[in-house]
Amino acid sequence: MPRTGRRRPGPARPTSTSTSTATSTSTARATVATLGAFAVLGGLILAPAATASEAQGALATRGTSSDTWSQPRTKETFHRLATYPVFQNRPDGEPATAETVAEISSISEDGRTLVYTDAAGKRIGFLDVTDPDAPVGLGTLGLTELGDADDEPTSVAVVGDVVLVVVDTSVSFTEPSGRVDVVDLATRTRVRSIDLGGQPDSIVVTPDGTQAAIAMENQRDEDLAPEGLDDGDLPQLPAGFVQMLDLSGAVDGWSATPLPLVAADGTALPALADLDTPTDPEPEYVAVNPSGTKLVVTLQENNGIVVVDLATATIDRAFTAGTVSVSGIDTVKDGGIDQTGSITDVPREPDAIAWVDDTHVATANEGDWKGGSRGWSVFDTTTGDVVWDAGAEMERLAVRVGLHTEDRAAKKGVEMEGIAVATFGRTPYAFVGSERSNFVAVYDVSEPAAPRFVQVLATTNGPEGLLPVPSRDLLLTSSEEDSAEDGVRATVGVFGLGPRFAKDGGTPAFPTVVSADDAAGAPIGWTALGALSADPRAKDRLWTATDAAQVPTKILSLDTGAKGPAVVDRSLTVSDGGAPVGLDVEGLWARPQGGFWLGVEGATGAENALVRIDATGVVQESVALPAEVAAGLGKWGVEGVSGTTDAAGEHLLVALQRGLTTDDGLGGYVRIGRYDVRSQEWTWFGYPLETTDTEGDWIGLSEITAVDGDTVAVIERDKLNGPSAAVKRVYTVDLPADAAADGSVTPVEKELAIDVLPDLRATHGWTQEKLEGLTIGGDGQVWAVTDNDGVEDATGETVLLELGKAKKLLGGDGSVARR
Hints:
The chain is mainly beta. The chain is 3% helix and 42% strand. It has two domains: 82-501, Methylamine Dehydrogenase, Chain H (7 Propeller), CATH 2.130.10.10; 526-818, Tachylectin-2, Chain A.
């Protein structure tokens, strides 16, 4: 079985060279994660670049080298065990395409039954996680069976043998209402309901199970403009509050007592007077400290935090979450990853909150109508001081692992939304979720004022629910984004801590690619790696390219020689006429004589081309497809390029993605072209494609690479992902050397070389659709990479696979690998 993925290092700390200024009700102390001349990510020590022998791209932007590595700390490494699509747990008769989400979750006392909210489906779901490698759907309980068809669950908490299901029953913003349903966990029958007197959001239960608190948000209408104000502005009454539940004794005796956050006459409480619009508090999230004595409440729209004494149900204090200034981040949506922007005095507006210990809380600063600092913070609850702030660290982390989302650059960036803290063994960990970049950052918070980055975990889209289960060394994530049309489905992710959960040699499945720092100290920006080529001068290097998802086009060098993820340590900008250009690069071949050939897909058939650039990235020539071929192309054109050189000169091999409309006579074939650079002649071959019966699916070619002088390997794949993915294969094809260069098409036969689907599934994540890059490295290994679509309508995870020896898997005489 080919080895799946790269060997990856263990945990360490990412670099951040940004400046961050945080302010609160008293003097704030903001820290930025720096490591002087060395930066560490996931056990990789990125040291200053050495002036070693020059390879391709001599004038490329150079990052730090990857020749020094630390050993992974396997005892504190989380491993992805499973990714369960919750649409598979839908009720009988409901179509698989119906929107079905997992948002907030809780766990039974034995740690084996997960309960999650599905607001889209108006229900809660149950999963058996007894075997963390293989969660089993246990069905759902629809709120329409308990109330009204419009009722939505907002949160859930398991208490003993019952589940508290928090339900929003509001008919309008001005008439908020809600209830909490008490549901027997075993029988899934409702025991009773308790009216909440408003619109609820999150719930928390004290460690002893005798009390619960619910954030009663009474949320604003984002489309309503109060008199003299803008849409979505506060105040918009009624004001929110906290509902305290007494859970002592029998269920039929449980009761609710409201804790107001405004005075009886609607004026601001003195404790909240320094917050934004204190006459309209909107509680978002609640958390109880480890000793069960204090409750903390975030008022997201009010940019505030309230501390409540649980024994007396009174407010201890309230303080503003303050503002933050962050530099060294991308703040413009322009297609590029430009980390020179900054935000100034932006309100944090925290969403989720968690206690680090009895006097410190951590907040995920998602932001709302006025703010969003793109990070997370730690506060001292006795003073309201900020003792630590992530600054640009989360944005830089997203860029480093290829999860930067350009679509959100001008808004709230990575948008940290969920946070949880739990102690595994003797180590308290903070888990912070990025709603837009689809990851969870793990930190050791043994020192609350100095969190230490441990690891980054890839999730599916919108990881809001973060549920640590220390008793079983598990972390469960629930992702709320679901769109069958886009191939994005909500999931529950399962991660296990420690060596006993390790697979593939004890290293995590993510990341497989990271970037080193550029000359300015920022991680080299990369995304959408849709092409792959060997470096003809270095056996432990590959070249790859960004497609249309990043502008201008970048050619990137990957160092694959050390243990751990491959490292993007050189970046070459493609230019033409002295200006950077944006090309949809789908194929790449590093020429032995220097420079590159690019396979460029065009918006129209005529715009498809082979483009040659020199070692500095400057365009030297462009070769159009023959007019009769271009005329038969739709929006799917050039998808791969490779090449060979011999005594007769340079020969390019080109894969078109789908069959031409003018090739009806071939039936089910797609073209492979051979272009003789010296004679400028094209020879065409007809490659037989697999077929699919899945509605909306199609099968085509994604890459081509030369195996030897007359043999090529191609990627053939379907358009499906996740559990639907079926065809992710590498085939080999012999191209007859005597085929005529007269415009005719010579049919060829293919032979299955590698079924890559098992390798993709072995990552235990969401099976990626776009297996798009393939090459034979100078070390004779077969490499493949997935295109992450720029994190747009995709999970964003990039999977780089080292599949095994080319001689064994692809055959041929090995001449290409030996060059």
